[in-house]
Amino acid sequence: MFVSDERNSNNLKSIEKSLMMVCIDDPLPTSFNCKAPRDDIPVEGRGLVAGDRDETNMMHQMLHGGGSSANSANRWFDVTIQLIISSDGACGLCYEHSTAEGVAVVQLVEDVLKQVDSQPDGGSNVSNNHPQLSPAVRLEWSLDQNLQRTILIEDLDLFVYRYNGYGKDFIKSCRVSPDAYIQLALQLTYFRLYRQLTATYESASTRRFLLGRVDCIRSATVEVLDWVVAMSQDESGVESEDNNQQSSKKVTFSLYTDEKKQELFDLAIKKQTEIMVENIMGEGIDIHLLGLREMAKESREPTPEIFQDDVYKLANHFALSTSQDGYGASYNPHTSSIVFCLSALNSCEHTSTWKFSHTLEESLNAMQKLLDVRKGNK
Questions:
Q1: Which GO BP terms sit in this record (predicted)?
Q2: Which positions ≥6 away from 51 have C-beta within 8 Å?
Q3: Which 3 state secondary structure label does DSSP give 19?
Q4: Beta strand ranges found along the chain (DSSP E)
């Protein structure tokens, strides 16, 4: 019905041929700010940037626009790159991943920021007219009420969390890869919440190979499990009753010394780094198995048993990255802070981005304390 209208059809063709979109927005209301109790979030962790809007609010704007009552009608999510500019100065980018890798787009944004910073007065003297660009033309649409709905946006539990305890400089001073370190922090956080590891999907670029795209860096290893168990041992306790006292008391104990935890941490980091290098060098397992699975489909032969096995299905249920009953957890380590963008679905009863961020902070603090002990002994 929508494309049967000639005007709609012509508009769609124009949009689909476009290189990118520029979306000029109004700010989202502060009701999109972090839903956690404000007193539970340190002021420095709220990331207030544009007026009373926090970074979680602005991430909602960049990700989906805020629903049909806000800016979502000002998006076209099939276009690879959408540049989003809000009237209060907030700006960002929404990126559709299927046609290209994130590395290329990140490089584009970094180059743009460098050019803006290099302009006098922040680029205020740049001409508003470009001789090679055609004048903007408004696209008019034929829409009915059934096409103007908000479907999934309200189910999004989104929280931008800025950890200010330390950043990549501290991690590098411990001679550890920041990426491997943060992956272990995410597993430790998940284990403390759910008492198990989970399959994670971290993209590893394979663009050095012809037609290469990405493979999957997994962090749920035996080495990581041994370490998170050791790190979480202090959280368990036993109830003991002293006959000389009137009431019982809880005695907290640990079976692991700091030296043992450090040893297990080193083994976990080593394994994580090995997996990362193997994937970057084209020796990962996920894309190889995916290729075999798709070849089996094209051959029209019965699906091989391995792809129907429960273990294979479990291994591809990524509760940290993609699954509907899990979390999205992207991150950007800065010099003295780490920014996390955490997402989940409100309809999933056992997930909460606020609880995850709170436990993540505890995990990062515990890891710093562990490594500070080692640095102090040297």
A1: acetylcholine biosynthetic process; neuromuscular synaptic transmission
A2: 27, 88
A3: coil
A4: 21-25, 81-86, 91-95, 156-163, 202-205, 214-217, 237-240, 249-252, 328-333, 338-345
Q: How far does Cα 256 stand from its chain's mean position?
A: 32
- pTM of the predicted model as reported, rounded to 2 decimal places: 0.64
Cα 125–chain centre separation: 36
Supply the pLDDT for residue 175. Answer: 92
Structural domains of the chain sorted by starting position, each given as residue range(s) with its CATH number in brackets: 6-151 (3.30.559.70), 158-233+252-284+318-377 (3.30.559.10)
Per-residue pLDDT reduced to its tens digit, 209-231? 888 888 888 888 899 999 999 99
Measured distance CA(170)–CA(173) in Å, rounded = 5
For residue 23, the tally of other CB atoms under 10 A from its CB is 21
Cα 61 to chain centroid, rounded: 16
**Marked catalytic residue, from 60, 97, 317, 334:** 97
Q: CB under 8 Å to 111, separation ≥6 — which residues?
A: none
Concerning whether 130 is annotated as a catalytic residue, the answer is no
Which residue has tokens 């903007």?
Answer: 136
The values of phi and psi at residue 288, to 5°, are -60, -50
Q: Which are the contacts of 53, defined by CB distance < 8 A and separation ≥ 6?
A: 27, 28, 30, 32, 33, 88, 90
